[in-house]
Design a protein that fits this description.
single chain; about 600 residues; alpha/beta; seven-stranded parallel β-sheet; 25 strands; globular
Length: about 600
């Protein structure tokens, strides 16, 4: 087994996850089998969404990047955390495995980390038998963080444990440009590498993040002072979208440097990235836009919906459309906001009404629920394509019960435990005392009940599909017959036939809600069928623009005269690969680093 370790220095948010994924893709394109491990995780509010795996593992979002780039299926053990390591060591100590010895960070914790890496690296993740050829390991955080010290010590020991020719270290660092002098500064990277070497890890390659391509003088200085061969100093400059990163690495022959360090030059072939290159070019040339209103309550952090954004992107590129996501804070759609902040209220409704499609993603708690219900009502009554995911499906059912069945107090027991009309209830097998790991998690099978429904057609007319779940609440089965008699159709159910998985409105062009999370299995070149269906429906001609007597288009309330909605404070996500150039064709629209053009509050 060969190992490639990716570390980060100077600052966080440089894009280690994307870099590690791109290295894996490049090695995969050379004919090697690749697996991945992420060390460390953070709070979803600090670092974005919780990614869910087939086995029910709730893991760091970077594992989502690995799965999307490499088209593999990882396990919960591919995400190593401090808690997991300490728990395993404590369990060993309780069993008496250490025979009464004093349990210490070195060697017991560091040995446990190394053993975990070796064990997990051998688990096949690409559907083939036998272990992979290369394991790409990403060490979360920044060199110098106290939280990662045991892992750094363990990885230093691990490099000697596996021996020369089996270990390659790629250090991702920042080369800033001081605008006062316009010079690329190497000192931060020099200090980062010096600190890394002082901790017992010696970089073989430098991946330098910079807004522009590195000058030859800058590369030479980094090679000299960081003790890295000149060809191994790589530039990772800002690009329009992250799909360019593997191509950047390939153009700089990063694969040759890595294969040389791993003693694999005779085994691997020249990287074949023709399909990836073609897809990236198509993405760059997309000019016709499709606008999707994302109605959620975590709109202040776009990475909270990272997989949803990626799934929308995959589907948009497949339909040759440039994606524009309008962030609509659910709470701003509610009547109470009109009294407190009329400007925010009008802006939110303008974004919703200007979109080609509406997506309500998953979430927890009752904040913003009424706004989501209003969004679902608007989409249903105006034939606007709607996709509800997890809570978004439950919202659609509650709205239908209130508006169509006249059950005005219909709601979920999550929001009102004492409700007389529970449309959505707590699942019987769930725990009300323990929050962690007690949800219905992982891959579950959904069986189609109606052969010619929209969802079944999108999935290729199969009888069942396997999708990933993460929920505690479900549609109340006692209300299903009443809802279906009014026109709502539950076209997908679990194996018992009692748990609702997919809901559709047959009389609507595209109104679908799903209890599962289809975004987790979407891939570049293989978009999720449901997201593809949403984008396809959103691309259909929807409405005309009212013209005034002076020949100008009548703009919705809250839209400025440049044709775009007011831009609130943007949030830079953790990918780091953000173009510093403004977009000339869409004034006031910025890219958030996912390659998704975002308009409105981010």
């Amino acid at each position: 087994m060969k190992y490639v370790l990716v570390t980060g220095g100077v600052v966080s948010g440089l894009g280690k996850g994307v870099t590690a994924s791109s290295i894996g893709l490049l090695l995969q394109a050379c004919g090697l089998r690749v697996t991945s491990i992420k060390i460390g995780t953070m709070s979803p509010f600090e670092h974005g969404e919780v990614f869910v795996l087939d086995d029910g593992g709730e893991v760091d979002l970077d594992l989502g990047n690995y799965e999307r780039f490499l088209d593999i299926k990882l396990t919960r053990d591919n995400n190593i955390t401090t808690g997991k390591i300490y728990q395993s060591v404590i369990e060993k100590e309780r069993r008496g495995d250490y025979l009464g010895k004093t349990v210490q960070v070195v060697p017991h914790i560091t040995d446990a980390i190394q053993d975990w890496i070796e064990r997990v690296a051998k688990i096949p993740v690409d559907g083939k038998e036998g272990p992979a050829d290369v394991c790409v390991i990403e060490l979360g955080g920044t060199i110098g963080d106290i939280e990662s010290m045991p892992f750094i010590e363990a990885l230093g020991q691990f490099s000697y444990r596996v021996g020369p020719g089996n270990f390659c270290l790629v250090h991702v660092s920042l080369v800033p440009i001081l605008h006062v002098v316009g010079e690329q500064k190497t000192k931060p990277t020099q200090h980062s590498v010096r600190q890394l070497r002082g901790l017992g890890l010696f970089p073989n390659l430098l991946a330098c993040r910079c807004s522009k391509e590195l000058d030859d003088n800058t590369k030479a200085k980094l090679a000299q002072f960081c003790h890295v061969p000149l060809p191994n100093v790589l530039t990772l400059h800002d690009v329009p979208n992250i799909w360019h990163i593997p191509l950047l690495l390939k153009d700089q022959k990063a694969h040759e440097s890595i294969l040389k360090e791993l003693n694999l030059p005779g085994v691997a072939t020249e990287p074949n990235l023709k399909e990836w290159t073609l897809r990236t070019k198509i993405y760059d040339k997309c000019h016709e836009t499709v606008r999707i209103a994302m109605v959620g309550k975590y709109t202040g952090l776009s990475d909270a919906y990272l997989s949803v954004l990626k799934a929308l992107l995959h589907a948009s590129v497949a339909h040759n459309r440039k994606l524009i996501v309008d962030w609509v804070p659910a709470g701003d759609l509610e009547d109470v906001t009109y009294g407190e902040d009329p400007t925010a209220y009008r802006a939110a409704w303008s974004l919703l009404k200007g979109a080609n499609g509406v997506l309500v993603p998953g979430g927890f708690g009752d904040r913003g629920v009424q706004g989501k219900i209003l969004a679902a009502k608007y989409a249903r009554e105006n034939n606007v394509p709607y996709l509800g995911i997890c809570l978004g499906m439950q919202i659609a059912v509650i709205e239908f019960a209130r508006s169509v069945l006249g059950l005005h107090d219909a709601t979920s027991t999550e929001f009102d435990p004492e409700t007389k009309t529970p449309c959505v209830i707590f699942m019987p097998e769930g725990s009300k005392t323990h929050m962690g790991g007690t949800m219905r998690l992982g891959s579950r099978t959904t069986y189609f009940q109606v052969a010619d429904c929209k969802s079944a057609k999108l999935y290729g007319n199969v009888s069942s599909v396997d999708e990933r779940h993460r929920h505690r609440y479900e549609v109340n089965p006692d209300m299903v017959s009443q809802l279906e008699s009014a026109g709502l159709s539950f076209v997908g159910k679990d194996e018992t036939g009692c748990r609702m998985e997919i809901v559709e409105l047959a009389s609507h062009p595209f109104f679908i809600g799903v209890q599962f999370h289809p975004e987790f299995k979407s891939r570049p070149g293989k978009p999720s069928p449901l997201f593809s269906g949403l984008i396809e429906a959103a691309c259909e001609p929807k409405r005309t623009v009212t013209m005034l007597s002076n020949g100008h288009a009548k703009l919705p309330i809250g839209i400025y005269n440049n044709g775009h909605s007011p831009i609130l404070k943007p949030h830079q996500n953790g990918n780091g690969f953000i173009s510093s150039k403004s977009n000339g064709s869409l004034k006031g629209v910025f890219t958030n680093g996912n390659g998704v053009y975002v308009d409105g509050s981010c």
